[in-house]
Amino acid sequence: MDKPLLELSNVSFTYPGAEQPVLQEVSFTLQQGDFVAVIGSNGSGKSTLCKCFNGLIPHYYTGDFEGELKLLGESAEGKRVSELSRHIGYVYQDFENQLVRPTVLDDVCFTPLNYGLADYRERGQRALELTGLSGLSREFIWQLSGGQKHLLALAGALAMDPDILVIDEPVAQLDPQHARQIYEILRRLNEHHGKTIVVIEHHAEFIAEYCRSVVLMDGGRLRWQKPVREALTSVEELLALGIYPPDVTRAAWLLQPDRQAAGNYPLSCEEGRAWFGRRTAAVNAADPANAWSFAAASSDGAPAVPTGAAARAATEAAVNLSAAEPIVRMEQIRLSYRTIHKTLQPVLSGVNLELYAGERVALIGNNGAGKSSLMKLIAGITVPTGGTVQVKDITVNGLPPERLSDIVSYVFQNPEDMFIDDSVRGEIAYYLKARKLADMDARVEEMLQAFRLQELAERDARLLSGGQQRRVSLAIGAAVRPAVMLLDEPTANLDISTKQEMTRVLEALRGHVETVVIATHDMALVAEWASRIIVMSEGRIIADGDKEAIFSDGQLLRRAGLAETQLMEMSRLLNLPQICSSLKEFTAAAGGRKGELVHGGSR
């Protein structure tokens, strides 16, 4: 075997003041041309491991460091971050902090120029070509979409022509189409340009499609390094750690009678179609009298539209809403901003919307569709260019946000943006103190209990895990008992296990808030939680309905820059009678015989 490109030997690291090391005797090798995914639950040491590669640990993040790093066969001891970064490009989770110059070309040239390389401009232009940004070289950074900014951060890393590229959470804040674009570029860099790629990733579907090997981190230790198929079909082991293989893999695992004997589960929808087809044929051959097949598709290939009780329930809900007064009313809303060239750039165009008490509303659409802008108008953070926004019969236009804070809570995408105190208890109390509420102490205790924060009450919220920080931010917002709560990407940067917990946390809001609105790209969360889905594209609302109506329209999802979950796609491929959005629905539809539910081989 060739000499490793990068090698860690018995590396341990402890942050100052921490009781336990965040890395414990980790040994790891990276071969030239590999495409590696680093997985693990929040706090398992994934990002800390990768920050050892370019010397950020221990040279920038100080602490107790032991062990050895070798890069290109040479010890990295005594080498500075700047020396190691010539060989290792890093795109961080908060990638926007890497963009430091006003225009695209200025920014991509910044690093090689900073190193004093004479061909800095040629390097920058080549990096823009590799990432598909050549046509935007003269654009200002603030004019770019989230996906374009992420590509620019990647281009900035590529400008140094590194041997290794490390990307922390490549798709965390991106819509599905931009997420796939990022991974297609990474694949091209790996296969055609010889770059060794390391991604820190929670989305198993992308790992299955693009990566070659997987490193599992658990409690600061490297548990194993395996080829991607062997890694992702270790279903029971991964689930025990709160790590979720692809949905189609889990569905097959649930329906496999002898899980100990079978490990060749499907990783993709195409593999899933073949796997479930073979399983059905085997089951029917064993018991011809009870032969079962997948339901026939309708003439256009789409599952049948729900009827009966589901249709009646939807109709009754619509009647109830039409008789109620809306909590939020938006009429002919327009929003534009003036560019540096003094032209108006439209963000929202002619939006009409009414929101009612008891609704769980999901705003979906691609990056730049206008979701966050719409929520900021409701909260009074932004003033519309035209039209009227009303919340609880109060006209919001131009009203200071603090005047609305008792009836509207806006929870930012980054929870730490809301933290000002040095304890969780203090964070919740701070907003209540400002309102001089007589029952402040009782409300704080109520929020600590409702969001399971009692044991964290005296901890600094900025030092908590991502999922814990989300719970704190929701407790802060819910404490004032607003009529409307607005959440921007509540599951961004969370592992899948913590995302699933967020569904339960959102349910905890029901007793404290009349209406909850989330802007998200997380289709699994939308399918499980939302009672109403609003689809946005290019500043307009292009669809508004329940999950059956929205998810059964594949053309609509593509137009909005979204993608079906694996279970939705599998529902179509298997011609199931409904679009399934949860494993329970899917295993019932795809695994049963004559309508019976089968889980793990037991009926």
Automatic annotation (TrEMBL):
Gene3D superfamilies membership: P-loop containing nucleotide triphosphate hydrolases (3.40.50.300)
GO cellular component labels: ATP-binding cassette (ABC) transporter complex
Membrane topology category: Peripheral membrane protein
Compartments (UniProt record): Cell membrane
Signal peptide: none
InterPro entries: AAA+_ATPase, ABC_transporter-like_ATP-bd, ABC_transporter-like_CS, ABC_transpr_CbiO/EcfA_su, ECF_ABC_transporter_ATP-bd, P-loop_NTPase
PROSITE patterns recorded: ABC_TRANSPORTER_1, ABC_TRANSPORTER_2
Keyword field: ATP-binding, Cell membrane, Membrane, Nucleotide-binding, Translocase, Transport
Pfam families (alphabetical): ABC_tran (PF00005)
GO MF entries: ATP binding; ATP hydrolysis activity; ATPase-coupled transmembrane transporter activity
Domain ABC transporter residues, every copy: 6-244, 328-563
Major localization listed first in the record, in broad terms: membrane
Keyword Translocase in annotation: yes
Database matches in SMART domains: AAA
CDD domains: ABC_cobalt_CbiO_domain1
Assigned protein family: Belongs to the ABC transporter superfamily.
Protein name: Energy-coupling factor transport system ATP-binding protein
Organism ancestry: Bacteria, Bacillati, Bacillota, Bacilli, Bacillales
